[in-house]
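Case study.
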Amino acid sequence: MQPAAANTGPGWPASIFDPAGPYAGSITTLSWLLLAMAAGVFLVVLVALWVALFGKHRLQKRLGGTRTIWIGGIIFPVIVLSGLLVYGLSLTRNLAEPVPANAMRVRITGEMWWWRVAYLDARGQPVNIDANELHIPVGQPVVLELESSDVIHSFWVPQLSGKLDMIPGRRNILPIQADRPGTYGGQCAEYCGGPHALMGFVVIAHEPAQYHAIMAARRTPRQQVAGRGEQLFRSTGCAACHRIAGTDANGIAGPDLSHVGSRSSLGAGILPNNRGTLIGWIGDSQSIKPGNRMPAYKMLPAQDLAAIATYLEAQK
Amino acid sequence: MRGWTFLLAGPIVWTVQFFALYGIASIFLTSTTTRVLAGLVSLACLAAIAWLFVHVRRSQPVDDPDAWMHRVSLLGIGVSAVAVFWQSLPALIA
Amino acid sequence: MKSETGFDPALYDRFPTEGERPEGELEELERIWCAPKGWQLLAAVNNNYVGTFYVGTAFLFFVLAGILALVMRVQLALPLQGILPQETYNQFFTMHGTVMMFLFAVPMMEALGVLLLPQMLAARDLPFPRLSAYAFWAYFFGGLCFFASIFFGLAPNGGWFMYPPLTGMAYSPGINADFWLLGIGFIEISAIAGAIEIIVGVLRTRAPGMTLDKMPIYAWAMLVFAAMIVVGFPSIILGTLLLELERAFAWPFFDPTRGGDPMLWQHLFWFFGHPEVYIIFLPASGLVSMMVPTLARTKLVGQNLIVMAFLATGFISFGVWSHHMFTTGMPRLSIAFFSAASMAVSVPAGIQVFSWISTFAVGKPRFNTPTLFALGGLITFVIGGLTGVMVAMVPFDWQAHDSYFIVAHLHYVLIGGMVFPLFAALYYWIPMMSQRALSERLGKWVFWLMFVGMQVTFWPMHILGLMGMPRRVYTYLPGRDWDTINFISTLGAFTIGLGVLLFVIDLARNFRFTPDNDAGNVYGGGTLEWLPTGLYSTRSIPVVKSREPLWDDPDLAKNVEEGRYFLPNSATGLRETIVTSPLRAEPQYLQIMPGPSVWPLLAAIFTAGFFIIMTIQAYKFSFACGILAIVCVLRWLWDTDRLVKEETVDVGAGIRLPTYCTGPSSHGWWATMVLLTVVFMIFVMAMFSFVYLYGVHPRFWTAAADKWSLLAILPAYAAAAGLALLSRHMLAREKTEHWTPGVLFVLAVCALVAGIGIDFWSWLRSGLLPTTSGQGATVYGLLSLESILVFIAVLMAGYISARNGRALIVRPRNNSLDLCVLFTVYAALEGAVTAILTRLFPWV
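After joint prediction, the assembly is written out as follows.
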C-alpha cells in the first residue's frame, strides 16, 4: 500500500514564495530581487546577441570591439554584483543575529528517516518528547538546536526559514518564526540514504494561548487504560523501540509515541493520521515507506492491529 | 619565471588574501579579532595590487610577445583588484 | 625580437626553404609513424588513434549515463511510481552524477586535448605518447568495470558526493561504496596522467615561433585546465584514500565520536568538486573561442581578455568550494568570504560571453550546426551563470540548496557550458578525423531537439525547487503541485534523448575514421590543425608568425606539405618532435619519441585489475595484478631515455639541434616537476586534514610524540637527499667508477627507508594507534603517504641499478638518474616535514 493519491502529508504545498514569518520572508524578498536581476541581465545579453547576429550594421559595428567586453563583461557585472554583494552580506548578518536568550528552544535530532523532537526548558533539559511534528506559538522566534544521531540530514521548512544541516558531532542553531497560525510542511533536504524521499516534517503554529494549552495538557499525567491494545503493544515488542510516557514502554530507537494520537501525520509527515492509515502503518509500514527501520507486522490479525491502533489513538 | 610571476601576479595576490582570510576566520570564527586581522590583510593586499599596477605599468615591453604579456598581466591585476576589494567587504559588513 | 634561450629568431627567416626536398623522405615518415594493423592496433600510441578511442569511450559513457537519467525521469514523471525501486533509484542517481562527472566530462575534455592539441601546436605527437595510451586504457577498463557494477546491484548508492557517515562502514556495509572509492580514485590517477601530458605538451612542444601571445586560445584553456587538475584532484584522491582507510581499517577520519569530523570530507571533496566545474567549462570555452572566430569569419575579439579570464578563473575557482556548504552552519564570516569569491568568479565568465557576442557582431556568422550549438550553449550557460550568482547569495542558498533549483542550475551550467560546446566541437572537428563531415541537415535537427529538450527539462526544475522539492528523492508525494511540472520535465528529457539518438545515427552514417584522407577544413579555420596531415601529423613543422597562420599566409599549407619548414624528414630515423622553450617557443632540442608498445596497455589492464579486484576483496589476485602492473610500467620505461648515435642533427635549413637534453630544460624534468606538484598537493591536503581535525576536536589530541626521535629521523632524510644529489654529482665526474652513481643512489634510498622506519617505530612506541583517534588516523595517514613515496623510491633504486648495470646511465648527465634523484630529494623533504609537523604541532 503506497500512500493514496489524496495523502500528501500536512502543510503542503509549501512554496518559498509564500513565507509565513520574518526569516523566510526576508529571503523571499531577496529571491524576488535576484530573479528580477537575473531576468534583466538575461534580457541584456539576449538583446546584445540579437544585435550581434541580426542587428543593423551600424549597431553591429558599435557592438564589435573590446569596448563591448569592457562594458558588458566587466563594468556592468561589477556594478550589479557589488550592489548584490553588499545587500546579501547585510541580509546574512541580520538573519544570523542572535535571538533573545529567553526564546523557546527545541532540540530536533535527525534520525534515519524521522525526527526526534525535544522541547527544552530554560536550562536546556527536555520537558516533552515528541517526533516528526513541532508545535510553536506564532509571533515569536523559536530556536531549534539541530543535531543528528546517525548520518547528515538537513532541516527544511521552506515557509519558515532556509535549511540547515544536522551533522553528527555538531549542533547547529536555526531560528524560525511563524507569524500566522497554520500547518507548514517540510522535508529532509540532505540525502540520507534509503527512503530519504519520504522523510517529512510538520510544523504547526498556534496562537500563543492555544499553544500553551496544548503543552499544559501534555504535562498533566494521563490515565492509562489497561486493555487489549496495551497488552498487545507490550507483547508484540512495540515497547522495545517506542516510548509512551507514563507507561513502562521505554524504547528509544523509534519515535516517541506519547502523543501519537494527536499528531497530524504518520510515517514522518507522509500520511494523514487516521485509524485506517494507523492500522496500515503498523501492519506493513515497509510497503508504505520501504527501507524504514520498523518491521512489518503482517502476522498480526486484523483485530489485533485495530486494538493497537485504538490504544495509540488514545495517546494524545 | 619572472615572466610567469608577473603574468599571474594579480590572481596570486587574491589567492594570498583569500587563504589568509579563510585561515583567520577558521581560527577566530566570527569575532572582532577576525574583522581586524582580515581588514589588515586586505589593506596589505590592496596595497600590493596598487604597487603591482604601478610597477607593471612603468615597465617597457620590448617586442610584441612582451607587450602582450604585459597587457594580460595588467588586465589580471585589474580583475584581481575587484576580487580583492569584494573579498574585503565581508569583514566590514557580514 | 629578444630571445629566451639564445636562439636567434632571425634564423626563422630561412623558412620556407627553397628547392625540392629529396625523394623518399615522406615515405620514411609514413613508415616510422604508421600505426600497427589488426588487433595490434591496441598497441598504437599515436595521438590520432588514442585520441579517437578516448573521445569515443567518453561519448559512450555520456550515452550510458544519459540512459540512466531517462529511466530516473520516467520514475519521477508521476508521484509514487514504482518503476525504479528505492535502492535502484539511489544507485542510478549516484551513477548518473559520478559517470557524467568522472567518466564523461573530464575524460572527454582530456580526450579532445589528446586529439586536438598536437595538431594545433603542429607537434608530431604529445610528449609522452605511451602515457596517453596508458591513461586511456586505464580509464577504459576501469570505467567499464565500474559501470558494470550497476548490473549486479553493487553500484554505489551514497550520491556522487559520497558524504560520510552515510558512506562509512556503519551505514553502507556493502562493497558498493568501495566501488566508488577505488574505481573513481583510480580514474583520477588517469586524469592526472593526462594533465601532466597536456601541461608539458602545451608548454614545450609548440611549433617554433608560437610565442605565448600566438598560442591558440584552446591551448591556453587546456593549460589552465590541466594546471587546475594538478592542484584540485589531489584533494579528492586524498579524500577517497582516507575514506577507504576508515572503511577498511576503522581509522576515524570522519567519525566524530573518535575525534574525526564528517565536515572534513566535505572540505576535501568540494576543494576538488567546485573547481571541477571550471575544469569542465574552461576547455569547452576554449573550444568555443576557437570556433566562434571561424564561424563568424573574423578574429576573436579580446583574445587577451579571454586569456586573462582563464587565468583568473583558474585561481578564483579554488576559493569557492565552501559555497556547497553554506547550510552546514559554518561561521558566518567564513561563508561570507566564500560568497564574495563566488561573485568574483562570475566576472571572467561574463568576459568570455561578451567576447563571443562581440566577435559575432564583427563577423558574418553562418548559421550552420556548430554555430547553432555554440549559440545554444551561450544562451543556456548565461542562464546557468545567473542562477549561479543567485545561489552565491548566502540567504537565497539557504532556501535553494539541495533543492531542484540546484539541479536546474547545475544542468544549465554544465549542458550550456560543456555539452552544447562539445557537440559544436564534434561537428566542427570531425572532418579532421573522418573521410566525411557529419550531416548539416540532421545536425540542425539534433540541435533543435537537444536545445528545446534541455529548456523543457530543466527550466521547470527551478520552480520545483522553489516549491520545496528536495534533490535526490526517488519519489514524491502527490498534492504538492509538483506533479505537472515533473511530467513536463520528463517529456523534455526524452526530447534530449531523441536528439542524442539522431546524433548517433548521424555518426554511424557519416563518421569514417582516417588519419590522413580526411574531409579537411570544411569551416575554413585558420589554425594549424587544419594543415594537411598524415599519421606523422604535418609533413614539416611550420614557423608560426600569427594566431591564425592559415588565414595570414595562404601558401603555408602548400609549403608545409612540401617540407619547406622544420623537420621535413626524420632526422634520426626514429619518431621525434621538436621541443621548444615555454614562453617564446624557440627550438631547443629534438625529442626522440617511443613507438607503439603493448606494455602501456598491459600496465593499464593490471592497474585496473588491482583496484577493481581489491573492491571484491580478492586481495591475493589484486596484489598479483599490482605487481604485474609495476613490471609492465618498468618494462615500458626500459626502452626510453636512450641516446642516439648523432649528438646533434639538422632539423631543416641547416639549423642543428641536440638529440639529448638533461636537467631543468628537459621535458622529463618538467613532467616530474608537475608530478611532484601533484604529490605535494596531496601532502598539503593531508596536512590540512591533520590541522583541521585538531581544530575541531582538540580534546582527542592526547598522545605525546617522542620529539627526540627527530634527532634520528632528520639526519636520515638529510642523508637520503645528500646521497642522491651526490650520485648525480659523481656521474658528471670524469674519473668516477662505473658503479658509483648506482650504489650512491641505492644508499640514498636506504636512508629514506631508515627515516620512515624510525618515524613509524617512534609513533608505535608512543602507544598511539591509527584507530585510537583523529590524531592517530591523521598521523599514520601522513606516515602512509610518505611510505608510498619511499616504496616508489625503492622501485627506482632497483631500476637505476639495473640500468647502471647495463651501462644505460650515461655520462655526464642522464635523465633516468636525474629524475629519480629529484624524486628522492622531494621524498626526503616531505618525510622531514611530516616528522616535524606531527611531533611539534600544536605544542610549539
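Observations recorded in class. The interface with chain C takes residues 3, 7-8, 10-12, 14-15, 18-19, 21-22, 25-27, 29-30, 34-35, 38, 62-66, 68-69, 71-72, 75-76, 79-80, 82-83, 86-87, 89-91, 93-94 of chain B (CB under 8 Å). Helices of chain B lie at 2-7, 9-28, 32-58, 64-93. We will return to this complex in the next lecture.
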